[in-house]
Amino acid sequence: MFALVDCNNFYASCERAFNPALEKKPVVVLSNNDGCIIARSNEAKKLGIPMGAPYYQWRQRCEDNQVQVYSSNYALYADMSQRVMTILRSFCPHMEVYSIDEAFLVIDQFTENDVIAYANDIRNTIKTHTGLPVSIGISTTKTLAKIANHIAKKHTSAGVYDLRSITSQEKVLPHFPIGDVWGIGRQLKKKLEPFRIHTAKDLRDADLKLLRKNFSVVVEKIIRELRNVSCIPLEAIQPRKQIISSRSFGKTVTSLNDLEEAVSTYTSIACLKLRNQKSHARGIHVFLQTNTFKKNDPQYAMGASCMLPIPTAHTNDMIRIAKKCLREIFKPGFKYHKAGIMLLDISPQTIRQHDMFLSDNQKKETLTDTIDQINQKLGKNTLFYCAEGIEKSWQIKTCLRSPRYTTRWDELVVV
DNA sequence: TCTGGGGTCCTAGGACCC
DNA sequence: TCTGGGGTCCTAGGACCC
Predict the structure, then answer these.
(1) Is the pLDDT confidence value at A43 over 80?
(2) CA–C1' span, A40 to B1, in Å?
(3) Contact A151, A9 (CB under 8 A)
(4) pTM
(5) Alpha helix positions (H), A92-239
(6) At residue A407, does pLDDT exceed 90?
(7) Does domain A243-388 match CATH 3.30.1490.100?
């Protein structure tokens, strides 16, 4: 038996948890650079504000309706997520953190009635300890638990829905749109329609062989999961296979110097993530681009990679080759809008192929460890590489960000 | 004026091996 | 006239997720 616990309107709810004045009011949270709307409270959804819409197109509507608008505050959301996950783990250690606001639990030890009480206990505990509302969907497979969660969120006031029985499945699946099924996106929806598949029930009852011939194994798994056959197992937390760091700039960037600072900063962010998961990487890919929305501006987008002889997790090693890549692709005269980096060929630090002709550099290890420890103790970026820049004029503006209530001593909530 | 930032998995095709 | 059968690895592109 799977339960999917999903926080309602997560980012918007985090803002509300520390600011009760937002209760019952429409709230939206914006993406980096205050570009797009990426979270909405129920009140904001009712105003017709769509997910992912560019903010500038909806700004007037927001102002007219006194919508409370926030820049994203990832320090806060990440910390709140950890609190929720810690509570969930205390209920059920057999769990998979699926995203910042969702987790699957495997709960096999319960009888029919107990499980509802158990789910309610989880909801109440999370609400009491964090202030965040969650919904819980329960069923026999992950795909069905996802559907149950949708129902819990939209059609019940209880916040818990049990979709294990055939009776409940017969009631729900005929009305559940195919595009809302986990794993069916826009393209698959379009391709399934000629097969007269419009609802979750249509897909469940479809001819498996016919669909397998026309679609990938992904679709076959979804069909089987809808038939109560579990094909997508609970997964343990794995180290990332790919680490990306990229941002749009706060202003148009034209100089190589600004790009170098930005790319060095992103490299530093990514390398810290890399070390935190005890991995190292053998290379880096650097990319930059102009603003693709500005059709009249000359466009340029390019990337370049560079590999090291042996993997590293040291920021200084990586910044050095990142800059080398950047200089290869930089062309003067363009108005740059975004740059980023991707770490390549990530592997665990325990697996290490030494270079016969290079000696280990113990000093470098000590340096990196010390920097990390100081930053851990005294706050992010207490020490940083000068290559990252000091003024960082290219950096994003987040003028609507709420305080980092839970991770900064100087931004604690005042009661 | 103004349009985010991460991730994963699958498949096909090419290059190579014996 | 006629040209096998079985593998692996890598990459790009596409689809999906939050």
Answers:
(1) yes
(2) 24
(3) no
(4) 0.93
(5) 112-130, 142-154, 166-172, 186-192, 200-204, 208-214, 217-226
(6) no
(7) yes
